Amino acid sequence: MLVVMGVSSYGNERNIYSNWGVPLVWGGRSDIGKVVAFELNGTSTRFEDILANNPSVFKMEGRPPRHMFRIVGKTCRNATLDDILKADDLQLYWMEPGAFTLQEYSSFLKGFAPVLVKKIQSLVKAAGEELLRLSKEYGEVHRRFDIIMNGFHSQNDEVYYKERLKFERKLFDSSKGLPLRQLFVIAGRMETADIKYEAAVHAFKRVFKEEKDPSAFLWELLNIAKTDSGLAGALACIYSDNEVTIRMRHQFDFPHDFKGQTVEIHSMQETDMQFGVHLLGGKFVGPVKLTKKVLWDREKNIYVFGGNKLKQKVARKGGRLEKFGNIIVTRKEDVDTDLLAIERIDAFSCINPALISEISNRNGKKMAVPQKYVDRIKKDYRVGRELADLALEELFGIDPDIARMLYRSKKGR
Amino acid sequence: MTGVGNLLGVRELKHRYKILKAKGQALPVEDMGMALPLSTGSPFVDSMLNERLANTPGMNEEEHLMRSWQLMVEMTDKELELALDHLDGCLNDHKLLLAAHLFGTGDERYMKCLGRLPIKWQLLFPTAIVKPSAAFFTGWRTDIRFRLVEDIDFPALKKAYRELLGKTRDEHILKFRDILKEGMALLHWKPDGEKEKAIHDWCFGAGRKSKEIPLLNNYIRARDLAKTGDEAGFKKELADHEHKIPLTSLMGLLSNFGLHMALDSGKPYRDYAVAAASPIETVLRLREWGAWLDDGQIDIIAKKVTGAKGLDIPFYKVVNAYLAIPRELKARIFDPIYVPLMKRFSNQMAQVIPKGTQVVLMQPNCFVNIMSLLFLATVSYERSTRVLLLGEKIDEHDDKTVLSYGKLKKVLLEDSTAIQNFFLKEFGAQALRNEWRFDANVAASAFDRFTTDDMLIIDMPFFFSTRILERMLPMNRVLNLGNNFGSPSEISLAVKYVPTFSVKTARGGIWGYQRFSSTSVSSLAGFIERLEWFDRAGGENKC
After folding, report:
1. Cβ-contact B402, B386 below 8 angstroms
2. Which of A101, A385, B35, B521 has its CA 20 to 30 A from that of A86?
3. What are the tens digits of pLDDT across the range B366-401?
4. pLDDT tens, B38-78?
5. ipTM at complex level
6. To the nearest whole angstrom, how far is the Cα of A258 from the nearest Cα of chain B?
7. Are B67 and A66 in contact (CB < 8 Å)?
């Protein structure tokens, strides 16, 4: 008989879930309990016996205050166990790595596998009503088999991970003194996250100490990482380390590789410049500063550092940049430009309604603001909304509330 | 809420709000600075106390500005007196706006409004008169052409500005260069006297004529050294300073060198930064500085924060800073910084929750694990909290546990195992519960266990029942950590819930939420602070 049950620890106590399910803790605490399985001899075993026979799993020291542990002392009825094993959702259970050793799985399967094979053989031979009956029996056995195999896989992974960790730790310790490029490549090949992170941070710290021009060195690595995903992973580790992050932010200066070309930019969005993701594919105008605000053309992957300078450059050539929330708009026939105009109408309507007459739509149409509105708004600011609604309908033909919702969501307010 | 002295209490303030709301004179709760359905009875005073000139779900910043302005234009003398008497509780943007309005009407009392503003806001005064968009808005809106004061008395404005410049301290000249520059440009300023000339040169020239302003002199020398990259000279220059360069300017200079305080090379600058920072700056930088602050530096910060100037820092800002800092630092700053400020807040809270009052925290028994110890400790300072756990049956209610600050303090900074053991010791098996069946009648029966004068904190989200509302009606003090039941004396603090998953079918659904209950301390602090001012101003306003 296979018994599956949930165990959780709380404080220094351990307790068992009565509901045999994955404990969904409503409200916040969501520590999913450990699930263990026990192969029992016979079906008459009581719950207390399970507790008593497995002292390493269940520790109940002394009597806790007030009424405690509804479970303790409860006899586990055979019928309940059968229900659980027959339940369709039994496959939801899994076994925590470490619940059993690989040897224990192996010896369990030694006895269990022939039963499974026997069931399969009789199932293959059967037909008619016999087939229906046998396939139900087979289903039950198979569910148990699934649980065991899941447990086996996770335990196997655990063992593999531990061995790999040992191996990589040794590899890392012996390669600490290697030249930096090799060290980064090795860090990129590490499978265990801890060692990979440790190796990458170690390598980054060495970059600051040893390289004359750390920026140029990292730039070279980034270019290699464009085709080397392992190395890219290692380079991405830096933001977990405080010291490295600060050094990158203050002591690095990346080359800007985008000079003497003319590009047409439609709209640029403000974003934070991050190491790795952004640097790998982008083209840069202006000196790159990490974690600073930067304008980004998503379509062409162009970054502009120093938005104000861009504004002045465009202005000198007779163009005009419209700033809308965190987006700069350069093309007139653009939804963003429309939204900007809509937002301006809303802003002007209650503080200086006459300014609305200067706003035009895509066709160049303007609206003259009736004087009666200007007078009324002076007395009651709420009339401004009426005027704004009117202007939006007149110029853009769009429902004013939808328009407001659109630009608010665009600005991420 | 029964008032203390001649104050009004939540019940009356809420009643006044509802009346004004019905007349269309009060803002919806979501458009207020802090979502509190309270009113002094005067829309103008309410706006001074709790309307921010910023975007809210229902209104733009321009609409807020014009609403406040129109309320000022239409205010009565009595309302103005009331606002002037409670200026310390008014929001800064509104104080500036009121000063602008009074200046426009030739009322000398605008000086009183200005005098109660932080220096940064005072320096914005000419901008608020001449180009209000630059003073009250941000982004592209700063360039909108409009004026609030139609006929500006420029000679009077210049006179006031001259007085202001005369008393502006050196570090503020350094800190608020942009504001000074804008103000001077708008007034076509002609400097008179050495100090003014130095300020003018600092704004529009290279700042070399700064002999009158020693701090500026220091800064410019340090900046020159930064330009040449002479770090040794820079260090020496800083060490010789009698006046400290403001923190933000110092950080700018350091980053010119590629230095950072958190790195090895930053060590000499840390003491300087801690000494130079203002009390509020130290609180806001705790998280950033957490990695390197030593005990001596923490002492200096503690002295600043608990000193005379530090008393102005609202407690909710301290709580937010405290919640954001790393765990190790929490333990180190709890006694020197958090406790004195919590003590001060507790005195403030005594206005509405007298010391010695029994506080009852009512919650389903499965909530033991998600209640906020910080919240309880803050509330229980000088008042014990009885925890009333609601059972699924009437005889399962459990109110045996009384938590005092002394008890809570021991586990506040412990790890989760210690906290769980504390819960096991205090609440027994209740700590292990993870499910609770809502039954309105059973929950309502728990009200038999305390009196109407006790302070009730109720934590029962996602559940509404008229049975509970019925029992809550006679209560005088109710703080709700979940959704509002609608009782007249009840205030909702709205703890933050973040949905993690949801499964919904025709037969029913399951939702999972993560909750951040410690932020309730910050809401409580903000609420108590606003309530105090509403109570004072409302008490003097006969409706």
Report:
1. yes
2. A101
3. 888 888 888 889 888 888 899 999 988 898 899 989
4. 999 999 999 999 999 998 888 989 999 999 999 999 999 99
5. 0.79
6. 25
7. no
Cross-chain residue pair A11–B435, CB shorter than 8 Å: no
A95, pLDDT greater than 80 = no
Domain segments of chain A as ranges: 2-150, 180-251, 267-320, 335-411
Q: How many interchain CB pairs under 8 A, A with B?
A: 113
A28 to B370: CB separation less than 8 angstroms, yes or no: yes
Contact A352 B258 (CB under 8 A): no
Q: Which residues of A269-306 are buried (b: 16+ CB within 10 A; e: fewer)?
A: eeeebebbebbeebebbbebbbeeebbbbeeeebbbbb
For residue A193, the Cα-to-chain-centroid distance in whole angstroms is 16
Distance from CA of B42 to the nearest CA of A (A): 18
Element (H, E) at A248: helix A242-251
A73 close to A48: Cβ distance less than 8 angstroms: yes
pTM over 0.90? The answer is no
Sign of CA dihedral B211, B212, B214, B219: negative
Torsion of CA A155, A159, A160, A165, to 10 degrees: 130
A interface test, pick of B25, B142, B146 with most A CB neighbours within 10 Å: B146
Q: How big is chain A by its Cα radius of gyration, in Å?
A: 34
Run of H or E including B111: helix B110-115
- Whole-angstrom Cα distance, residue A138 to residue A150? 18
Q: Do B291 and A242 touch (CB under 8 A)?
A: yes
Q: List, as ranges, residues 85-114 from B with C-beta within 8 Å of A.
A: none
Residues A350, B66: C-beta atoms closer than 8 Å: yes
Judging by DSSP bridges, how do beta strands B508-516 and A293-297 pair with one another? unpaired
Q: How far is CA B188 from CA A20, A95, B191, B371, B373, in A?
A: 80, 78, 10, 59, 57
Please tell me the distance in Å from B305's CA to the nearest CA on chain A: 27
Whether chain A has a CB inside 8 Å of the CB on B24: the answer is no
By C-alpha distance, the chain B residue nearest A324 is B140
> Which of B69, B139, B424 is closest, CB to CB, to A13?
B424
Residues of A within 8 A of B259 (CB-CB) are 250
* pLDDT tens-place string over residues A14-62: 555 433 333 222 222 223 445 555 544 433 445 555 556 665 555 444 4
The structural domains of chain B, with segments of one domain joined by +, span 10-211, 224-349, 359-529
- List pLDDT tens digits, range B283-299: 999 988 988 898 999 99
